[in-house]
Amino acid sequence: MKSRYVRQIQALALSVVMLAASYTALHAQTYNVLYNFGNATCDPFEPQVSGIIAQGRDGNLYSTTAVGGCDGSNGAAFKITPKGKLTVVYSFNHAIGDQILAVGGLTLGTDGAFWGTNEGGELGPGNIFKLSAAGKETRFSVLGGANGVDPVAPPVQGMDGNFYGTTTGGGNTKICTYGNGGCGTIYKITPSGKFKVIYTFDQTNGANPDDPLVLGTDGNFYGTTVLGGTFGKIFENSGVVFRITPSGKYTVLYVFCSQTNCTDGANPLDGLVQATDGNFYGTTEYGGTGTGGFRQGVVFKITPAGKFTVLYNFCSLASCTDGSNPYGGLVQATDGNFYGTTLAGGANNFGTIFQITPKGNYTVLHSFQNTTGSLLGEYPEVTLMQNTNGTLYGDTYAGGTAVGGLGVFYSLDLKLKPFVSMVAWYGAVGQTIEILGQGLKGTTAVSFNGTAATTFTVVSDTYLTAAVPARTTPGFVTVTTPGGKLTSNRKFRVLSSIVSFSPTSGPVGTQVTINGTSFTGATKVTFGGVKATFTLNSDTMITATVPTGAKTGKIQVTTPLGTATSSQDFTVT
Length: 573
Known about the structure:
The chain is mainly beta. The protein contains 1 helix and 50 strands. The strands form 13 sheets. Strands 34-41-40-36-37 form a 5-stranded mixed beta sheet, with no helix packed on it. A 5-stranded mixed beta sheet has the order 43-50-49-45-46, with no helix packed on it. A 4-stranded antiparallel beta sheet has the order 1-32-31-30, with no helix packed on it. A hairpin with a 2-residue loop joins strand 36 and strand 37. It is globular. The termini are far apart.
């Protein structure tokens, strides 16, 4: 269903006739084609949305394509070095049980595996898989019918260690009217493969999500749907922005096409990014105030509470030299600005790479072209990613030097400094955190918002682990290497934890002071499993009364970020 839908939109987007025109771009960036897909045996090719590119522990970049590979062109997972050496990690093969159409790309889990999905297409409902960097695949054939079909985007990991994702079809097949595949679902799957649907879309509250979920700093997930909602008529309603808790509580934050003529945007194809200001940013494929039959899309901002703002309308310039019809989402780079691509428009009508500030100042950085002697790629669909070396990377669906133009993998060097990133940017005191970077050999110190980690291990030049030290507060992680200090691209979030409590024993009715981290929003405190009355004094302190019936055992505090358990027992005397 997804592939048919995307190709239909692409045909419409590319039917817009535009005149080529020049556009002044910034001069501080360098665009380079690193690899031309389709020139070598077993090559992957034609990467398409969502096509997430993930950085591995080895510093290389990993993703998937729906076609190519060594087994009947059923698609492939590949890795590519920052300098452009490509290796096929795994070739999908329907003959041995694989589903096909791995359009989603990959996400890296804390287990070291890359998680992804195969859409399935006409040959099945699709599946979820995990893949080691060495190419060992584990398939989870849990989809079909009410569980959902056609998963387009890979799942992402939640704060509870489980993975959460969406399916484009399946679920409720009686309400959604686009095609015959149903409205789609949101699911949870454990690292071992235990599967559960936590929400089924119903058209009115959104339908047919193509995008990956994004984990918010509040522990909930945020996303968009391509279709559904209560306004608009473009492809049977125009999509929504939603929030869902790990337990399945679903809230629509915004319905696209709420404004006359869909000036607020319509049909978002890719996911959201939560910025350093706490708000979410994204793009829509259609809508806005630009020229063209269906308008040409917008960049938008939305707060966690649902306040919506259009930051930019594509095709605002003559001949759409500023770009039109974005398929991919946005990435916030370490300079604080957002970067994205458009499928069409630009000086040559083959798409653009753009920069937009949080305030909406927009600049075209690169216009794709495919002229004789300069086959530099065309029609980018995939969201850009920033490697810890500071450079942006992406790929295109078409163009390049292969016969037929099967796409390219490229870099955009903005001269941004190297940094470190965390596989999971959250954790409790004592928990081991994985850190990606470069030049890590010889690291002499790791700190969490200024608090030194007493335990850290340098595994390789691109990967280290560190234990979250006591008294850590939310903030940036810093790694001191022989080449200098590297700072994380986002703040570390301290999950709820109990550091100490006093007194450590007493009868029923004793007032106990519990010290820890991230207690804000606490909903329950228990002594040995028995619920107690309590007062939330601050984010780091709770006072609770030992309840009637309490038995010697652990103290637990339940918060929106999880349940914190004491390391020692409270003794009831």
